[in-house]
Design brief:
alpha/beta, five-stranded parallel sheet, about 50% helix
């Protein structure tokens, strides 16, 4: 009984110390969910052996540890997040000097009417901060996925397919310049017209289970290398 009490006290003490040392205050402009998850991530932190899945709703929506069969994988995705939002909460990831980061972001930036060049510069800003603050971390930059507007769900993305393709073109170039590993997911999810394959989504933007299985096969060699 005493042992259980001591163990419980130790856990509570660790949590209290963690809360005391945290200084992250999320900008309310990013929304309530961002604040909830970003402050949780700040408390959890990461370790130097962790593999971090970092991104928006596409990352948020997956049980990566189970999908990849790797207990070192942690999910740091937030629904609706942008490159700016990721940059603001990056400290909670970089403090732990993780082994690897898999980054996918940009489609929400597109929905905010940013140009391809503006989106790319926001992502590059994230990459440069990772390199500066955690130089030993191996970074994997993943392309944006295609969208499918036939579902008529995300009207702020109407007519933005070419913007997404241009972002991917520019990101591939910048990845080479920065020495970041580029993973081109896009062609594996696109149909003959460049739309997100209908069988992989139920809203034109987010993935169903079979889509995550494709994603797994594409990144698993990099997870395991």
């Amino acid at each position: 009984m005493l042992r259980k009490l001591l163990l419980g006290f130790s856990v509570l003490t660790a949590l209290a110390l963690s809360a005391q040392t945290s200084s992250f205050v999320p900008d309310p402009k990013f929304g309530e969910l961002y604040g909830q998850r970003a402050t949780l991530f700040d408390q959890l932190g990461v370790r130097s052996d962790n593999i971090v899945m970092l991104g928006n709703s596409l990352t948020h929506g997956c049980e990566w540890r189970e999908l990849l069969g790797n207990p070192l994988v942690v999910n740091r995705g937030i629904n609706g997040d942008t490159a700016e939002g990721i940059y603001q909460r990056l400290g909670s990831v970089l403090r732990g000097q993780p082994a690897k980061i898999f980054l996918l972001t940009g489609v929400n930036d597109v929905s905010h009417d940013l140009s391809a060049e503006e989106v790319v510069e926001g992502i590059v800003k994230v990459l440069l901060r990772i390199r500066e603050e955690s130089p030993s971390t191996r970074v994997y930059l993943q392309s944006l996925l295609p969208i499918n507007q036939s579902f008529e769900r995300y009207h702020r993305l109407d007519g933005k397919e070419d913007v997404i393709r241009e972002i991917n073109r520019l990101l591939q170039l910048r990845a080479a310049e920065l020495g970041v590993t580029w993973i081109n997911l896009y062609p594996h999810f696109a149909d003959g017209d460049g739309n997100l394959r209908r069988e992989l989504t139920n809203d034109g933007l987010h993935l169903l289970g079979p889509g995550y299985l494709i994603w797994r096969e594409l990144i698993l060699p990099y997870i395991n290398e």
